[in-house]
Specification:
Spore Coat Polysaccharide Biosynthesis Protein SpsA, Chain A
Length: about 270
């Protein structure tokens, strides 16, 4: 290993994701970049998660298995143990493609003054791993993120650890858009950069039991609250988009439970 290469720390928070976590772990272990510190923080899973984690334990730098206060708390535990110049997290149902970290480090070495580095393309994958869509998000600065497009390519996003420490880690009270809140705080300190690579280097799993699917209305309301807290205009494209999506959620719920339509739309 070339010790002159900056170390990159990846944290995987997990709770009862036994059906997906092996693919997640393998995607980290199969990175072409050699200097990676891998930390798995499990919140007390009762399914097969820990059997999978223990199988790979010799290849994982740190494993924590204890109750936590949720995803943000678990990630913060990993952040506080991490020793890499760059840190990021990979949820236990998502995957990185082999060259992801290498591309991030290349970008970091070209532009070392930033706080956020990410790959702007991402595959959406379903429960079986089949690709069902391609997302592209190019965020140039805080103003754009705040008012124009709040969508984030999270799995392939990495942060300078010194800046994560400076902003005080994730807000553990935020359960859905902790990444958005972190980005907005980091962008008060230093720029954001995205790679020019023309292919997706991560897969975000969107399936029927994922947190953002089952809690769509809570997810959208938390995003709105976070954006307004950081200064978004109530007339911004972001806020208008959220209002439309919240209305769609209510309509879908009404159609599903039309016998209770009055209370659903209230």
């Amino acid at each position: 290993m070339n010790l002159n290469l900056p170390k990159v720390s990846i944290i995987t928070p997990s709770f009862n994701q036994g059906q997906f976590i092996e693919a997640t772990i393998q995607s980290v272990l199969n990175q072409t970049y050699p200097n990676i510190e891998y930390i798995v923080v499990d919140g007390g899973s009762t399914d097969q998660t820990m059997s999978v984690v223990n199988y790979y334990k010799s290849q994982i730098d740190i494993v924590i298995h204890e109750k936590d206060k949720g995803q943000s708390d678990a990630i913060n535990k990993g952040f506080k143990l991490a020793t890499g110049e760059l840190v990021g997290w990979l949820n236990s149902d998502d995957v990185l493609y082999p060259d992801c970290v290498a591309e991030i480090v290349k970008l970091y070495q070209e532009k070392p003054d930033g706080s956020i580095y990410y790959i702007p393309l991402q595959n959406g994958i379903n429960a079986t791993g089949k690709v069902h869509n391609l997302a592209t998000r190019k965020i140039p600065d805080k103003k754009y993120l705040l008012n124009e497009d709040f969508s984030i390519i999270q799995p392939s996003s990495f942060y300078t650890r010194k800046h994560v420490i400076e902003v005080g880690f994730l807000d553990a009270k935020i359960h859905y858009c902790m990444d958005l809140d972190l980005w907005l705080r980091l962008l008060n300190l230093a720029p954001i950069y995205y790679s020019a690579v023309g292919v997706p280097l991560s897969g975000f799993r969107n399936w029927e039991l994922s947190k953002t699917t089952t809690g769509a209305d809570k997810f959208l309301k938390e995003i709105k609250k976070t954006l307004l807290k950081h200064g978004a205009s109530i007339y911004s494209r972001n806020i208008r988009r959220i209002q439309i999506e919240l209305f769609k959620v209510k309509i879908k719920r009404f159609l599903r439970y039309n016998h209770a339509g009055k209370s659903v739309l209230s």
